Amino acid sequence: MLMKTIIFAILAVGALAQEFTLQRLPSVELKNMLTTQCQKNGAEDKVDEVENSGKAFVECVKGLFDVDTLKREIEEARPNGALDEVFKKYCAKTPQLKSCIHNLLDGVTPCVDTEAKGHITEAKNATDLLIDFVCYKDGDRIALFIAEGGPQCFQSKVNEIKTCGDTLRNSVSSVEEAKSLTVEQRCAKYDELVTCVVGKLETCDTPTPSNMFESLAKYVRNSTPCPVSTTYIISIL
């Protein structure tokens, strides 16, 4: 339900801005999906409100950084070993970015189902954790990730990583079965997915991408109800 809430927030953004699309669907189709979701949850009169929250989010993010400018700055800084300076500048804006995301999640609340509404705070915490992880020590992690070819590694392994997700999805026969899983069972499936993805990334030229992904996965896991694994305890001792 946590992921469902976040995905619906992305859908709200996609319906408002053609440059923000989900799986390359036309913006009209995205808007129709948004409208259907609101109707399903008895909030057909809230479609405009949710749309406006998506528009506000797009403008909020645009006010913090421009994608093309960021790409150019990264390319210019890479040869000089100055990526840390670039990300230090952008990571200083994380409080504003968190506020953008929190406002978006609050804005889509009327059109998510009752169970998902109870996970809005968790969704906020999850995105905050992700931002904090990326911007740890003024962005040292993301700077290292890019310098070590992390994006290229992930891009080259997209199809292999997809098989990890397919395997997880096929291990659960229905939505009802997924809902009936205990916390321990859900955490075990999360661990299986992480192990699979890490295994795919380990075949890249450098260990940084797999190490970074595994560290992020453990960081996220440690903030959930999942019991901390023995392996994780050993790794931090």
Automatic annotation (TrEMBL):
Pfam families of this UniProt entry?
DUF1397
Q: Which UniProt keywords apply?
A: Signal
Give yes or no: UniProt keyword Signal.
yes
Query: Which InterPro entries does this one have?
Result: DUF1397
Q: Where is the signal peptide?
A: 1-17
**Any idea what this protein is called?**
Uncharacterized protein
